[in-house]
Amino acid sequence: MSLESPVIGYTLGDQAGIGPEIIRKALPQLDPRAEYRQMGGAVQATPGQPTLETAHAALEHLELAAQALKEGTIDAVVTAPVCKEGLHAVGFPFPGQTEFFAARLGVENFAMCLTGRHLTVGLGTIHVALHDVPQLLDTAELVRIGTLLADFLQRTGTAAPRLAVAALNPHAGENGAFGREEIDIITPAVQELQRTLPGCSISGPCVPDCVYRDAVEGLYDAVLCPYHDQGLIPLKLVDFDNAVNATLGLPRLRVSPDHGTAFGIAGKGLAREFSTVRAFELALKSVR
């Protein structure tokens, strides 16, 4: 392997879903100077009808991909959508692929990032009730995720990342009138990121109803946001067809299209491959 001829692995996901179709459509559009290596083989699958066999195959392919990443026989991996219900039925103990790859590669410092052609977001909290977000926000955690996000941007071609840290409250709290999270939690995180990442530009707390527009227009390279929907609503508004899920913190990049198995349209030729193409492009950028 070399930077001129990287090896990008890929999985087919749950093969009763759209994974095989979007991979098949994506591969002819990719840079021919790289090698694209399938992890595992095809199984008998009826489109739209997942089985224990398709779940077992999906899990086996994830294990093969993780082992190849660990051994360095591939430079990055693109994983097609899996069915979590099916994986859990065959003994998969993780919430998702993010946690699986982190565990298999022995990485404890990791996070999830969603990135499209116009907007990239890191999440301070993920799948929790909105009511719980203020109690879960933590300065050290924002610094940790912000550091991983800056590293991801550098690994994918942004030499001096410009990172915005979004406020939690309207108008960034109005100096405490609408809450103290900006004063007590977010501002200290911004200051620590500025101190520890001198090669980056760190701004914040940024007014949340403007910062995503500013990022889309090119003022920032990524936004670190305090909760799930604040970041994903604008991302899916501007990048619905090309958003990619990336696992931050791994020694080699794992990315996947930001959509599910779509069993309802599997086998009908309707699945769009744009997010998968973007995932492969990002995998290549991380190597080069």
How would you portray this structure in words?
There is one protein chain. This protein is an alpha/beta fold. The chain has ten helices and ten strands. It has a ten-stranded mixed beta sheet, sandwiched between helices. Strand 4 and strand 5 form a beta hairpin.
The count of β-strands is 10
| Rg calculated over all Cα atoms | 19 Å
Beta-strand portion reads 15-25%
Taking the sheet with the most strands, its summary is: 10 strands, mixed
Strand order of the largest sheet: 2-1-3-10-9-4-5-8-6-7
Summarize the model shown:
The chain has 288 residues and is α/β, with parallel strands linked by helices.
Secondary structure elements and their pairing?
Layout: E1 7-10, H1 19-26, E2 35-38, H2 52-71, E3 76-78, H3 84-89, H4 97-104, E4 111-115, E5 120-123, H5 133-136, H6 139-155, E6 162-166, H7 181-196, E7 201-206, H8 208-216, E8 222-225, H9 228-239, E9 244-248, E10 254-257, H10 274-287
Helix pairs in contact: 6-7, 8-9
List keywords for this structure.
single chain, 288 residues, alpha/beta, ten-stranded mixed sheet, 10 strands, 15% strand
